[in-house]
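Colleagues,

For the teaching module next term, I've prepared a clean inverse folding example: a structure given as tokens, and then the sequence designed for it. I'd like students to try predicting residues themselves before seeing the answer, so please don't circulate the second half yet.
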């Protein structure tokens, strides 16, 4: 999680303010420019002393010491606690830090030089980055900031109080649950009872109502009527006619057709009447139950909100507690 600078050269500075007889020694300006470029402008160097320790051709090695200065505050991520990020300020803007290193320079005054730094030592950590201008820091804490303890204590108390909030909301949830159970009982009894006095639910009540229509339609079975008509009326009339000789069945058939048509119309009227009755009864039951259902739906909505809140509060408090415990174990915070 720690961001090293682009190059090890970032923690080093460049050359000596000392005067050398050798014209092959890089100038202050060259090394400072190269260093600034390599650090992407994050660091600059000053008050440099440079001492040559070796030279082979146009390649020379130096020890360098001096001050390194950050051009902005630099921060390193040192821990997480839930949604909160904990940073350490590793460098303070414009505050000089002593450093020492080895530097190799290749080139001449005519061709200019390229520099390389190694064996770097500095009094500050070689990690960190600046916060960007538009970075959201609302859930960020800097452990070595002056206001850290107050901010941390406030958050720690907030998460500690989450348990009390959860306990309170659980009681609210239980109260709402009881109201829902009471409404369920009212709703169950609103649909009526069966022959044994047991409450009916909506589906059972509707099936019972529709069964009245089915029972009447079964009783008024047109095929049954036709069969009975043929046995009890049509066939006796036909036999009597045939016994007389020269039997004309026109009137017998006409009577049959008329009887069947009248019966169809009568059955249709009875079906429509009971259907209208059942629909009206179902509508009345649903109208009676509707406000209870709406109230139940509203209560369940409140319960869902409480469930979600308790889950989030419990999760966030647990994540905070575990994150803080880990950072204390690692010595990031006390």
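(Answer key — instructors only)
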């Amino acid at each position: 999680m720690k961001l090293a600078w682009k190059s090890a050269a970032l923690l080093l500075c460049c050359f000596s303010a000392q005067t050398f007889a050798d014209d092959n020694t890089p100038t202050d300006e060259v090394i400072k420019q190269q260093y600034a470029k390599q650090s992407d402008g994050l660091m600059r160097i000053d008050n440099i002393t440079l001492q040559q320790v070796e030279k082979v051709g146009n390649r020379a090695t130096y020890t360098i010491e001096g001050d390194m200065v950050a051009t902005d505050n630099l921060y390193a991520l040192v821990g997480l606690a839930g949604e909160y990020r904990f940073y350490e300020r590793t460098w303070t803007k414009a505050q000089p830090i002593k450093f020492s290193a080895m530097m190799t320079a290749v080139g001449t005054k005519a061709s200019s030089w390229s520099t390389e730094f190694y064996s770097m030592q500095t009094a500050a950590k070689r990690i960190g980055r600046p916060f960007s201008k538009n970075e959201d820091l609302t859930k960020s804490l800097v452990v070595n900031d002056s206001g850290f303890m107050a901010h941390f204590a406030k958050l720690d108390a907030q998460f500690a109080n989450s348990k009390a909030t959860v306990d309170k909301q659980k009681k609210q949830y239980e109260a709402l649950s009881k109201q829902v159970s009471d409404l369920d009982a009212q709703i169950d009894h609103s649909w009526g009872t069966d022959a044994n006095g047991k409450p009916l639910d909506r589906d059972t009540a509707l099936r019972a109502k529709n069964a009245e229509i089915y029972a009447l339609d079964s009783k008024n079975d047109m095929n049954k009527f036709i069969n009975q008509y043929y046995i009890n009326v049509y066939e006796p009339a036909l036999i009597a006619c045939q016994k007389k000789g020269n039997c004309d069945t026109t009137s017998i058939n006409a009577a049959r057709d008329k009887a069947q048509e009248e019966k169809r119309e009568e059955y249709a009227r009875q079906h429509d009447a009971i259907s209208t009755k059942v629909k009206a009864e179902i509508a009345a039951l649903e109208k009676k139950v509707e406000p209870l259902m709406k109230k139940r739906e509203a209560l369940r909505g409140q319960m869902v909100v409480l469930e979600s809140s308790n889950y989030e509060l419990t999760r966030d408090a647990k994540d905070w507690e575990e994150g803080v415990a880990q950072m204390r174990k690692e010595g990031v915070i006390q």
